[in-house]
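Recall the central idea of this unit: under ordinary conditions, the amino acid sequence of a chain determines the structure it adopts. In this exercise we apply that idea directly, starting from the sequence alone.
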Amino acid sequence: MRGTTVVLVRHAQSRWNAAGLLQGQRGPGLSARGRRQAEVTAAMLVRRYGHAAAIVRSDLSRVRETAAPVERALGLVAVSDRRLRELDLGSWSGREHADVRAAHGEDFTRWSRGGDVDSHGGETFTQVQARVAAVLDEVGSHHPAATVLVLSHGGPIRMAAATALGLPPSGIVRLEPPGNCAVTVLMWSGDGGSRLVSYNDRSHLANVAHLANVAHVAHVAHVGDVQADPPSRAAR
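Accordingly, the structure predicted from this sequence is:
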């Protein structure tokens, strides 16, 4: 039987993304650049996946704000699911990478390499894989042979892709972190036959970067809203 086409979309740039802070399950909503990214992404999703049967999303504010434009455009009310939240980073949330590395060097290094470290009060990669696989199995059973938009975070999206590829939880670090509003497509099947169709596609945002640069030159936007996404292997 044909699986469910799961279109995974990472949230748009948040204010903590712009500041280069680890987020986990904390943090504020979108930056000005992020709001523009969300609108452009919604238009693309309507063009490509206007036939989607449902929208499922994380309940965190940066995802709620990213999902709102596509919900309006498609006339669908998203199902909110806490299992699509970002990896819980515990006491590391809200801090810069350098600060966490200095304070918890050994644990941070192990975690960055795929070790099952709970990030000091957070959760492990194994725990994240279990909850992400469970919610996607439910999506598949509720919408067989259909297309479903799933809006989430970098960590769960990488974990979903790793799972589809048959990788263990530590395999998450073998995948490049998806950028803001990047689209990843899976053919999800609960019988273990899932496959990765495409990963980390941000081609629809090319014009947003151009507009952000124009805004920067014109001093229309704050510099924190137009800077590039900070490079990181960490959960955002």
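Residues 4-226 form a domain with the Rossmann fold fold (CATH 3.40.50.1240).
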